[in-house]
């Protein structure tokens, strides 16, 4: 009897979480399109990460998700778009440099260096919005903090990449989950492991002081 009650509780929790993800995905799409797609992607994404951060830290979800999401996405609009546009511009620039290098320059050393920079920029992207949500910093300092986290949090970075790969595999075999919440599903491992990395860096800083 206890075992069946336990299974019921677990299945209820999973169902509740999936419903929460469905709501987050709906709100993500709503605000992305409301802000004209490009201007909506970064603030809406940051807001979902914030929702996960709150659940990790406070062990609770907003009682009224829709008004909470509206408030937070508007708060995130300016800074998240600034960070997102700068990071997207950097990635685009490095990608174009890689194409030029492979097509015209054809120097293996230069190509390797550019590839390393591009991969590093991708990894920085995983930490950029979580850092913004955690700290109040001048604009360029968010990039500095994201670089520091990437360097000192190698296990969390690897786990984040593996989490995204596992999510991709699961969604490939269970495409129904794409409808339920592919955006929150991909952001969940990013949110969880970046949160762990941030907490670890803060605890190390406390020990040093």
From TrEMBL:
Keyword set, alphabetical order: Membrane, Transmembrane, Transmembrane helix
One Pfam match: DUF624
Presence of keyword Secreted: no
Domain of life: Bacteria
Transmembrane spans: 28-53, 110-135, 147-170, 176-195
Residue ranges the record marks as coiled coil: none
UniProt name for this protein: DUF624 domain-containing protein
Organism: Enterococcus casseliflavus ATCC 12755
Taxonomic lineage from the root: Bacteria, Bacillati, Bacillota, Bacilli, Lactobacillales
